[in-house]
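hey so i finally got around to running the thing on that chain from the lab meeting. sorry it took forever, my laptop kept dying and i had to restart like 3 times. anyway pasting the input first so we r on the same page abt which one it is
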Amino acid sequence: MTEKYIDFDEYLNEKEDNPITLKMFGDEYELPASPPVSTMTKLFSMHRKDTLKDEQVLNMLESLLGKKQFKVLVKNDVEIADAEWLVKKLVSMYNPVPEEADTKNKQPSTSSKNGQ
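ok and heres what got predicted. didnt touch it at all, straight out
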């Protein structure tokens, strides 16, 4: 009989984190390999929409980058469209499954309602 046991603590101790390197204005910054779940939940829900509210973009960037790196964007007068581009790039880096994967992996139905 197989024992049903998951040791999440062991996983956390043994996992290898490969941080994301972000180059901005000639400097490189390390971002966590995986941001907090709360940040990603907000990001994914916003990313599914066609447009993001400016305030959301700024809040998410500060959450993802940290205050120090976010201040670099402010100091360099980054435009909101460019900030939104950066949010979308970061989401795509953190999102392990492409959005269209759900539809690509579905098999066509083999049942037939019309008897053919």
